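// run 5 | inverse folding | seed 20
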């Protein structure tokens, strides 16, 4: 699994350099350590090995979803944070997966990739 982890880390670093434009909000998305740390538990957020692995495997789907989506499904604001979610059902090799990408607005009013989650659907 360590080799796999390094592959995902390299992918994330490339994505960070290349960035993503999200048509749904008509903005460039900042790919930063915040998202990596949230997914891998590097910010003190406790995750199981299985959960981290599942989320890392969704990184490519997260990028794809951000770059093709023209609408977002959820916007949540509090006094402190603003979160936006983009969701879709994606198919790969006959397996359907519900994928949710979460963006968080930073102090400079930019959207940062924050998290990805998904689950297999029995369709």
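// decoded
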């Amino acid at each position: 699994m360590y080799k796999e982890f390094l592959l995902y880390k390299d992918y994330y670093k490339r994505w960070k350099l290349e960035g993503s434009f999200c048509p749904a909000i008509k903005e460039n998305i900042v790919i930063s350590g915040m998202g990596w740390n949230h997914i891998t538990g590097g910010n003190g957020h406790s995750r199981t090995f299985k959960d981290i692995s599942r989320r890392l495997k969704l990184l490519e789907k997260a990028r794809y979803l951000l770059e093709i989506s023209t609408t977002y499904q959820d916007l949540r604001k509090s006094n402190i944070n603003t979160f936006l979610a983009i969701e879709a059902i994606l198919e790969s090799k006959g397996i359907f997966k519900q994928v949710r990408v979460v963006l968080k607005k930073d102090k400079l009013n930019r959207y940062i990739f924050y998290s990805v989650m998904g689950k297999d659907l029995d369709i």
